[in-house]
Amino acid sequence: MKLLENLNWRYATKKFDPSKKIEQEDLGRLMEAVRLSVSSYGLQFYNVLVIENQELREKLREASWNQAQITDASHLFVFCNYTSRDGRHIDEYIQNISLTQGVPLSDISGYGDFIKKSLSAKSDAQWHAWSERQTYLALSNLLLACADLRIDACPMEGFEPEKYNAILGLDKQELNAVVIAPVGYRSEEDETQFRKKVRKSRESLFQLLT
What are the alphabetically sorted keywords of the record (predicted)? Predict the structure, then answer.
């Protein structure tokens, strides 16, 4: 599998080469991979910011414990969950199904009601945890696509979401920054790339129940 080779190649890049930029065609491929990600109910209850603006990333770096990846990478992906619990996004999703698949709304309105009922049964804590987890499914697709294109990435939780929300105006959009990923190309000076990948053995990680 080429995928396994690429996964062994990738690592959480600590030092990017700021002189190397991702071509627009490859950036489009990364965005398409994120768009095609799995999600609960197919709802895609998140929004993704792709930030190239250097001045904006300088501000975000201050809210990211001054980690250089934020500004040195080619682009910064910011995965955000929606904070509103109203049914607007579900209604839009059902309408999208109808338009995309040519199905009458009357035939699938029950599915929308089912999703609303299922999500409304969650407590606030459960709902927020669920909506934040959705962003990690999309992040996973980004990391796989980066590896496939031999583009470096570094998934990061080391930032202050409240400051990101303020800097990017996310609160006004009923969004919350959950996880981020600078993407670009590794610096030759990044010594981390030469370390052997450390993972659990198959025996300790998996339980095969036959």
Answer: Flavoprotein, FMN, NADP, Oxidoreductase
